[in-house]
Amino acid sequence: MRYSGFRVIKEALTGHRGWGPAWRDPEPKSDYDFVIIGGGGHGLATAYYLAKEFKQSRIAVLEKGWIGGGNVGRNTTIVRSNYMLDGNEPFYEFSLKLWEGLEQELNYNAMMSQRGIINLMHSDAQRDAYIRRGNAMILNGADAELLSQKQVLEKYPFLNVQNARFPVMGGLLQARAGTARHDAVAWGYARAADQRGVDIIQNCEVTGFRIENGKVLGVETSRGFIGAKKVGACVAGSSSKVMAYAGMRLPIESHVLQAFVSEGLKPVLPGVITFGAGHFYVSQSDKGGLVFGGNIDGYNSYASRGNLPMVEDVMEEAIAMFPMMGRARLLRSWGGIMDMSMDGSPIIDKTHIDGLYFNGGWCYGGFKATPASGFVYAHLLATDTPHKTATEFRLDRFHTGHMIDEKGMGNQPNLH
Amino acid sequence: MIINHPLLGPRDLSEFVYLGDACLMNRPDWQADDALEQFIDYGYTRDNRAGLHRELWYHEQGDRSWLVVTRNTVTHEITQVELARDVARAEGRSK
Ligand SMILES: Cc1cc2nc3c(=O)[nH]c(=O)nc-3n(C[C@H](O)[C@H](O)[C@H](O)COP(=O)(O)OP(=O)(O)OC[C@H]3O[C@@H](n4cnc5c(N)ncnc54)[C@H](O)[C@@H]3O)c2cc1C
């Protein structure tokens, strides 16, 4: 069924009896050409682009819980392409371009809203760094604009720009950045993939690989063995766990990141804004809640909940930036498990096992990457060659020294 | 999370800084034939276990000691806290 304004009116007049499920709930077949492990945004997008762009069939997505229950349904929904390094920026800009056409492509309202992101700057050194990053973005076909303090105040008149320690000197604006409805992205890809024949199999946990003579033959799951010519893992925070079934140790640590939402308020924040003297980002959802977050808690964790010191830290940053936020009540907070890589950048590559591929290491920036990650992973799975925007996301870069360390933090995953 | 410091008793998480897997205490021998491989492994790959995890914490806002904490990464429960110094000595190093 195609969704449209006409359809909404028709259903409204006929008691909404015609909608039907957005995707099937198939039994797993005994074997597939492609098995994607993980029904998060990336796994579902990969399956969709495999079918749509690369004309492949016999594809399954195996999800241990329900689709969208992982990080794709837990993030703070910021979509942007304001990276600096050559290995990253073309990929994220490719992703942003895909976002711009996503809803038409999927026939699904993902509430993509290009409301702009401003990274605030608080020192001369930071201004220089932002100018450099802005130029790198422009060179890669993205948009970037340096705002003065006055221009920032025009958009956000209530910002505390006079903070004695961290005065706001201006900001780096990417006007095409914004937010999208995270669950809808998972559901939109799921529905579109399903319509192209992809089997989305929920409650199906992968518990091992069947590997013979260096070649993968399929996966062991909680619903029995499923054969596959090619297997693509795409499990975000569970990357190390799943790849350990294939005997691999990854350059990844799993960490918990918390997010917060306030009670619903009248519109106060027109766009996304980040605090440059710490790590804090906030936007306002269409329901009115302020959605915000900060750093990861900083220690290895598979518990989808964090601790109080980070809660306090995030609140302090919020109040330093917007004193008025002190009046808003916090409604909810939650956590998600981040696949923090050793250089802060992702990995999309073949493994040393024939037919087994790996996609992970997204740290806390993988939501914005969803369309491009799916596209380039499908490219790799279908053609065995990397897409041109993803040639540097290699698994062996930690051996060869070709790190993509956007923040220059070194091999300390909790600092990326 | 509260870390029960062997010398100072229960201390709040916010006093500590996290480094990572306690395997970082075992720096490879730079003269070994496969020193390069060992250092790549040491620097960049981790077990990253879901479950019991031995890890290094630094008591920065306290006595500046390094601790080896055994913690369950699924529940955050801490079952053992040792001075890293004692752990190294027990392994016959840092005499
Ligand atoms: C609090 C928070 C805020 C964030 N904010 C942003 C942001 O503002 N912008 C941004 O770009 N990114 C953000 N991120 C990061 C982003 O959400 C992730 O990088 C991205 O969602 C990861 O890809 P995914 O959607 O495929 O992951 P997931 O949705 O986690 O998908 C992985 C799936 O694999 C499944 N799985 C795991 N093990 C198995 C198994 N053995 N068998 C079968 N299935 C398995 C899981 O159940 C899960 O559904 C944030 C993350 C969090 C937690």
Automatic annotation (TrEMBL), chain A:
Gene3D superfamilies with a match to the protein in the record: D-Amino Acid Oxidase, subunit A, domain 2, FAD/NAD(P)-binding domain
Entry-linked InterPro entries: FAD-dep_OxRdtase, FAD/NAD-bd_sf, SoxB
Subcellular location: Cytoplasm
Domain named FAD dependent oxidoreductase: residues: 33-379
Keyword line: Cytoplasm, Nucleotide-binding, Oxidoreductase
Pfam family, one: DAO
PANTHER family: FAD-DEPENDENT OXIDOREDUCTASE DOMAIN-CONTAINING PROTEIN 1, SARCOSINE DEHYDROGENASE-RELATED
Protein name per the record: Sarcosine oxidase subunit beta
Species name: Marivita lacus
Gene this protein is translated from: soxB
TrEMBL record, chain B:
Gene3D superfamilies linked to this entry: Folate-binding superfamily
Domain of life: Bacteria
InterPro entries, per database record: SoxD (IPR006279), SoxD_sf (IPR038561)
Protein name per its UniProtKB record: Sarcosine oxidase subunit delta
